[in-house]
Amino acid sequence: MTLQLVLRFLHVLAAAVWIGSALFWPGAVRRAVAAAPAQPPSPALALARSGLALDLAFGLATIATGLLYLAMGEVPIRHGIEAGMLFALLRLALLSALARPALRGVTEGLAAGDLELARAASRKLPAYAGAAHLLWLLALIGMVWPV
User: Fold this and answer.
1) Where are the membrane-spanning stretches (predicted)?
2) What's this model's pTM, rounded to 2 decimal places?
3) Sequence-ordered strand ranges (E) for 27-133
């Protein structure tokens, strides 16, 4: 029973940090690009990169702790949990395939002093972040909805 409670706690904690970092890093990118002509963007951009890394790491931690919790056999595997897991994995794939390269483009553009390149790359991020938030919401609904 104790291991089950520890895993549940770690799962909820990882999910909380996951959504917190997911809400944070797109705004940090926007602030870095907005401040680029006037000041060096390194602090805001470093925060954005760290936030995206936390987003990916705690997404993986949430999935891993959820799988360990399910493997204990105390919780029946429902279709909602399967759907939630799929949406969580899709969200991580979206971040890895689209958001990370876009953030890399912003970083390279600002490092080269090419503000237009940085702005062009940053324009894609709100769509990616919005889709990622929707996938996170669908994953959460799948996990808690009794289906």
Assistant:
1) 51-71, 125-145
2) 0.85
3) none
18: three-class secondary structure by DSSP: helix
Using DSSP's 3-state secondary structure scheme, residue 42 falls into helix
Tell me which architecture the domain covering 2-144 has in CATH: Up-down Bundle (1.20)
- Which tokens sit at 5? 């409670």
| Domain coordinates in residue numbering, the chain | 2-144
Q: Burial, 84: exposed, middle or buried (Cβ in 10 Å; 0-12, 13-18, 19+)?
A: buried
